Amino acid sequence: MALLWLDDVRAADLETVGGKGASLGELTSAGLPVPPGFVVTAGTYREFIEESGIDEDLFAAMEIDSEDSKALAGAQERAHELIMGTPMPEEVREEILEAYRSVGGDEEAFVAVRSSATAEDLPDASFAGQQETFLNVTEKDLLERVKECWASLFSQRAIYYRNQKGFPHHEVDIAVVVQQMVDAEKSGVMFTSHPSTGEPRAIIESAWGLGEAVVSGSVSPDNYVVDRKTGEVVDVTVADKKVMHVKDEETGETVEVDVPDERREERVLSDEEIAALIEVGEQVEEHYETPQDVEWAIVDGEIYMLQSRPITTISDDDSGIEEAAGEAVANGGQSLEEAGSGDVLLRGLGASPGVVSGSVRIVTKLDQLDKVSDGDIIVTEMTMPDMVPAMKRAAGIVTDEGGMTSHAAIVSRELGVPAVVGCSSATRELEDDQIVTIDGDKGTIREGRESKDVEEREPVEEVRPKTPVKPMTATEVKVNVSIPEAAERAAATGADGVGLLRIEHMVLSLGMTPERYIRENGERAYIDEIVEGVRTVAEEFYPRPVRVRTLDAPTDEFRQLPGGDDEPKEHNPMLGYRGIRRSLDKPDVFAHELEAFRRLFDMGYDNVEIMFPLVNDAEDVYRVKKLMREAGIDPDKQDWGVMIETPASALGIRELAEAGIDFASFGTNDLTQYTLAVDRNNENVADRFDELHPAVLELIGSTIETCRELGVKTSICGQAGSKPKMVQFLVNEGVTSISANIDAVRDVQHEVKRVEQKLVLDSVR
């Protein structure tokens, strides 16, 4: 027989029906919603080329240098000529047409014709999108479309990819899936788990009409991120969807049309549809026992599965990102080790991880690929399938259109080439030979070749955990960082993020007061210093959160610096003009700090969180929110919070929470001295300084309880967080995170784990 029905196909039939056919047959057998159809088997293709005698010429044409773009084009052309110029056997023709009529009912029925290679969608390699797919095919074109699929086994990118993966051309066959056409109203792609990390965060991309617009990259789709643990839609990006693919009612052909103006920026999927897709996706992942890349469509409220393949880009650790950056450097790009802080020119979706610099090469036609040299940045409207050889040479990829789940983005990740997609206007705003830095993690394109001197750093081995695996705890264990130079040592602890990064140490290192520095060097220089300092730490920890405290230096420290003559003289600076009081009193200087945060967010550092010190009441919070908005920071979209350092803030936590904070962090040094009226630096009373005093613990405990009730995160970043007894108290109270000094992180991790295990045991005994 020349074909098999999907109802009779299983995963074990890979060699007969190819990767796509085997997947669709398996999904059908699992009871998932798959349109009916059949597969023209790989054996039918093999018999076609062998019995017609074109096989020897076909494989001889593949003996080329796959790095030579012209040779690749010639090989593709010769294969197409041989296959399309050879007639299909009559008995095969009749069997295919008879099956088609069974699927559609008449010769005008519409079907999808999809290639399904036998070396496709394997666990360790994705040949995504390398062969042809045809939509809205009727009987008169069906047989030619089947042959077009056979010929597409020898497309330029397929030839190149097989050479790179070591698949001999003569060992790869191709089947063709013929399915009832789903005239989709909305469609797209879903990763059932994160495509880089494998964490249970589903990513769905969707657009209007047929799904080819999404997978081909011709439209920038909506992007939805779903936490599968909670079912919460944690991020929604509604794109400007300019075009859609639909069936032309007169000709029946698939055409690209403009999306009506009122729907271009309309959200495609409702929360209910997202939940339904997640449910189907989880069924698929459970069936295959591995994360899946799923193509789907919705028509009349019904979900249809069009394809499912294993995700091949998940890394067990961070090595994939390191290798991607390293390979780009080897090709002439510049790695993160040399990165600085250029202005953001464009933003898109980070589709393939890594940070590299290089010269822009605008590619609008395939015959321009030869101008792409090692280490260049390809900038194109969308990453066309035949660009793979040039993509391998490039340091990075930037596109106007497309999403992170497009086939081209998948190939970029497999090649280890950083990519940013969906930038809208990169081909118009960037120029040939322009030097840029692209960040495939955060989705930014920055001006210039970023560089900075690599400073001498302390050895990191001494703070690495002695055990190979960090203790897994429900309570996060973070680390305190005082200076950016300590970022590498801090990250080596395996901490879950930075619970406290102090800005004042960056400012004090300038050697003069902020006002004096701004007068002598300008506002931009001051902002740059803050950006670079915070960025050093945020980059080292990305995507783990980095909580940055705004300026909190007492007047006596500023008074010692040039420009400090104007500082007020205070009997007790710790009770005086510092923290948020100073910031609100000098909004012009504070605005520069906020501008630094705005720039960091624009650069893609969404792991940065802002923390305001010495807040007393909700009035402080409302004033801060107003200044944030004036600086261009949306307090509803960024994580920010306050320090709990005074009894007033602890007792007024409900009002602070209602004012909109995302977290509250205990500064136990100040909270203790303000509660007990004890200056820990005063030798006469220092012995009375006790962070574990019942009054201090009562304030901390009641604050945690209220925050848990109101959904506000809690943490501790004071020195007491490193003490075992405080750790025991905090974990029992339900604190969200504990931030410890660098040398104490490992011990705190194990102490937290011990306390949590005891809580679990106590609950079941």
From TrEMBL:
Pfam families: PEP-utilizers, PEP-utilizers_C, PPDK_N
GO annotation, biological process: gluconeogenesis
The protein's required cofactors: Mg(2+)
Recorded superkingdom: Archaea
Pathway listed: Carbohydrate biosynthesis; gluconeogenesis
Domain Pyruvate phosphate dikinase AMP/ATP-binding: 15-319
PEP-utilising enzyme C-terminal domain residues: 466-756
SUPFAM superfamilies, alphabetized: Glutathione synthetase ATP-binding domain-like, Phosphoenolpyruvate/pyruvate domain, Phosphohistidine domain
Record-annotated PEP-utilising enzyme mobile domain positions: 373-443
Main EC class the enzyme belongs to: transferase
EC number: 2.7.9.2
InterPro entries: ATP_grasp_subdomain_1, PEP-util_enz_mobile_dom, PEP_synth, PEP_util_AS, PEP_util_C, Phosphohistidine_dom_sf, PPDK_AMP/ATP-bd, Pyrv/PenolPyrv_kinase-like_dom
Functional note: Catalyzes the phosphorylation of pyruvate to phosphoenolpyruvate.
Similarity-based family: Belongs to the PEP-utilizing enzyme family.
Protein name as catalogued: Phosphoenolpyruvate synthase
